[in-house]
Specification:
The structure is a homodimer. Chain A is of the alpha/beta class. Helix content of chain A is 38%, strand content 23%.
C-alpha cells in the first residue's frame, strides 16, 4: 500500500495505470473510517484493478459553526483499515496542496444544493461538489463509490458528474448499520452513552414508516408525523427535518409514489445525525 | 477528419487515444473560424498526436440582451478551415447533448469573474468556465489552446484548471491581427464599413500606450486617458472600459509595474470589440 501526499504524483500514478489499461476505483472520505467505508472499499477492490482511498477533511464543506476543528482524525487507525481492505493507494493531501492561497473556483449544483440538509448547511454541497470535482481530476477513477447514508450527497454528485460529463461511473452502496440499526457514521463518536442508546430510534422510525407504506399509507404528511412522533417520544433530540421527496429531484412529495426518499436529520447533543430509506412505490 | 456529434463517442475516441499513449491537443471555439483560430490549430497540430477542435455556440455565456441568436454559424466554411489545418476530430455537439433538460451544474471562478468584462457581462465567465470544464471532461486533452485576444478568459480558465486540478496544460497564443491591426474576431462581421475603418484605432491606441510606457510613463490614469482620448477622437464608439491591471489577479493598478495587462472593450454599433496588450515592466 502506497501513501501519496501530493497531487502531481497521484495524477502520474493514475495516468500510468490508465496507459496500462488498468481500471481505477475510488473511495473519497474524510477519514475516521468505519465499516461503512470498509464496505465501499470491498466493492471497489472487487470491481477494479487499482483501489484508491482519499482521506481529506475538507474545510469548504463545513459551516463556520460546524465541527471542522473537532472532526475525528485517526490516521493510524485509518491506515490499518485501508491495509485490511487491500487499498493500493491512499491519497492523503495537505490543506495547502488542496487549497493554495488565493483559491477561487467552486462547483455548484444549483437547486439540489438547497434542499434537505442544504437548508441547514448553506454552502455544504458546494464544498462537497468542489472537493469531489478536484479529486476526480486528481485520481481519474473509472468508478466512484459513495454511501447511501449520505443520500443527498449521492444525488448532488451524480448530477454534477452527469452535467459536467466526467467520464466516471457512480456506485452507491447500501448504508451499513450497527447491530441496533444506527447508521455507521464518524459523527456517532460525538454521542454520549445516553444519546447512543436513543439514536437507533431514527432507523426504527424509518422502518415504521416503511411498514405504514407497505400497509397502504401514501400521505406524506402522515408519514412524516409518524416518524417525528416516534423520534420525539423516544429521545431527547432536535429534529432538523423529516422529509419525503422524489429521489432524483429531491422535491417534496404530498403523495408518495415512484422512487421515494424518506430522509431525516436529527441533532443529538453535539451530533447531527442523518439517515434515510428509499422506497419504490408503484 | 472525423466529425463527432455526440459526447460518448468523443469520450471513447479520447480514451482510445490515451490508451495508445497518444497526446491530445484541444482548441475550443464557437465556430465562425478565422486566422486567429487557425494559429491555435497550427500550434495544436505541431505539439500533439491528435488535434481536436470543438465548435459549440454556448448559450450560457451570452447575456439575455446579447448576440446569441445572431452569432455567426458557418459550419461548411469552418469544416474547410479545419481540414486545411489538419484537424483530426471536430467535436460538434448539439445544444441538447450539452445542456439536457434539467441542467443544474456550474463552475465559477469567484472574484476574477466580476473584473473587466465581468462588470458588463454578468454570468459570462461562469458560462465560459462551465462549458470549458465540460469540454475538458469530454475531450481529455493534454494541452488546451487559447487566444490572448480573450485575455480575461485565459486568466479565468487557467485559474479554474489550476484550482480544480485538471491534468491539462494551457498554451496561450498571440492575438492574430488584420493588416491594419484590428484583432481578428468573429464579431468583426457585425461592423459596418464605416465602423470597420475606425476599429483599428483600438490597437493603435494600445501601441501608443506601450510607447508611452517605454518612454517612462507609469501612471495608470494617464495611460488610460491617453487610450480613451485616442479612441474618442478617432471613432464614433462607446467605451465600456480601458483598464490597466495585474495580469494574474486582474486587480487595477495605480502605478504600472510587473506584468501588466492593458485591456479595453469598446462598442462599435452592434459589435462589442475587445483587445489588449501585456507589458513586462521592470
Amino acid at each position: 500500500m502506497q501513501i501519496i501526499k501530493n497531487i502531481l504524483p497521484m495524477q502520474e500514478a493514475a495516468a500510468k495505470a490508465k496507459r496500462k489499461g488498468k481500471t481505477i476505483g475510488f473511495v473519497p472520505t474524510m477519514g475516521a473510517l468505519h465499516e461503512g467505508h470498509a464496505s465501499l472499499l470491498k466493492q471497489c477492490r472487487k470491481d477494479n484493478d487499482i483501489s484508491v482511498l482519499s482521506i481529506f477533511v475538507n474545510p469548504k464543506q463545513f459551516g463556520p459553526q460546524e465541527d471542522f476543528a473537532n472532526y475525528p482524525r485517526e490516521e493510524k487507525k485509518d491506515c490499518l483499515l485501508a491495509k485490511k481492505e487491500k487499498v493500493d493507494i491512499i491519497f492523503y493531501p495537505s490543506m495547502k496542496a488542496m487549497y493554495a492561497e488565493g483559491y477561487l473556483t467552486y462547483i455548484d449544483v444549483e437547486s439540489l444544493n438547497s434542499k434537505l440538509c442544504g437548508q441547514f448547511r448553506p454552502g455544504h454541497f458546494k464544498g462537497v461538489a468542489t472537493i469531489v470535482g478536484k479529486l476526480l481530476n486528481i485520481v481519474s477513477p473509472d468508478i466512484l463509490y459513495l454511501g447511501q447514508k449520505d443520500a443527498q450527497q449521492c444525488v448532488v454528485l451524480q448530477k454534477m458528474i452527469t452535467d459536467l460529463n466526467w467520464p466516471v461511473k457512480v456506485k452507491v452502496m447500501p448504508t451499513v448499520r450497527e447491530p441496533d440499526g444506527l447508521a455507521m457514521s464518524s459523527r456517532n463518536k460525538y454521542l454520549t452513552v445516553q444519546e447512543r442508546l436513543q439514536a437507533p430510534i431514527l432507523y426504527k422510525a424509518l422502518l415504521q414508516a416503511k411498514k405504514a407504506v407497505t400497509q397502504g399509507e401514501r400521505d406524506a404528511t402522515k408519514i412524516r408525523y409518524l416518524i417525528e412522533t416516534l423520534i420525539r417520544e423516544n429521545s431527547a433530540s432536535h429534529i432538523d427535518y423529516v422529509e419525503c421527496v422524489d429521489s432524483n429531484t429531491l422535491l417534496p412529495l404530498k403523495t408518495l409514489s415512484g422512487k421515494v426518499l424518506i430522509a431525516i436529520a436529527v441533532k443529538f447533543g453535539q451530533a447531527r445525525l442523518i439517515d434515510n430509506i428509499v422506497l419504490n412505490i408503484s
